[in-house]
Design goal:
- The protein is built from 3 helices and 2 strands; from the N terminus they run H-E-E-H-H.
- The chain starts with 9 loop residues before the first helix and ends with a helix.
- A hairpin with a 6-residue loop joins strand 1 and strand 2.
- The chain is elongated, with a radius of gyration of 22 Å.
- 53% of the residues lie in helices and 11% in strands.
- With 131 residues, it is mainly alpha-helical.
């Protein structure tokens, strides 16, 4: 059954409906983000290097959640816990060795991002289009 609104309260009715839509959309986008960041953590843990010195590096890969105040949207951040976080840049980009050589870069993070980001964008578009 349709809701009737008087002309004087039309602006308030539209505003309340837009707030409901915004809240629902933010919730759907937050759910998609959470699924995607968990997938990114799973894939980077699976493909992270496991050598002699960095054999426990993969265990330190995690994500963090922060909430924005104004919109209620959440920010998910992929990170590596201390003290292994220092290795990430060296592993991804390669580095100079003590003997003067150079190590080979390991693009495990970029490979996982290349898999997760297209899926994330597709799911976001579906969340916006669906009602």
């Amino acid at each position: 059954m349709a809701k009737t609104v008087k002309a004087e309260s039309l602006a308030n009715a539209i505003n309340s409906e837009l707030k409901l839509y915004s809240k629902d959309l933010t919730e759907r986008i937050n759910n998609v983000g959470l699924i995607s960041v968990k997938d990114l953590v799973r894939k980077t843990r699976a493909t992270a290097p496991r050598g002699q010195r960095d054999k426990h590096y993969y265990r330190s890969i995690s994500f963090d959640t922060r909430k924005r105040n104004a919109t209620g949207s959440k920010i998910y951040t992929w990170y590596v816990k201390a003290p292994e976080y220092r290795l990430t840049h060296l592993l991804v980009n390669g580095h100079q060795t003590r003997s003067g050589g150079r190590t080979k870069a390991n693009p495990f993070l970029q490979n996982a991002l290349n898999e997760v980001l297209p899926e994330y964008e597709k799911k976001i578009e579906e969340a916006v289009k669906n009602e």
